[in-house]
Design a protein that fits this description.
mainly alpha, DUF7314 domain-containing protein, DUF7314, transmembrane, membrane
Amino acid sequence: MADEFVKGLGIFTSAGLAWMVLAGWYRTPSFESSQQLVAPLSLGDSATMFDTLGVLLMDVFFWFAIIGALTFWVGIPAVRQAREAIEDRAQ
């Protein structure tokens, strides 16, 4: 069980760090404002291909952090416990 926790923690921290870097670039209008990392996007018509890719990757990293961590912390242990319960009931 410890290896699932470490895998989930690794996914959560690495994807979370990548999201924080991209959100700092694209969702922080000013470091004096109170809406750092969560301000709405304001790219407008001047968005380049790299800006669009950065915004897309920001969303991908966010959901990968959430779903990846939950998979290793909740999903896999629940499936293993259910499998063991079914095998115990069959015997």
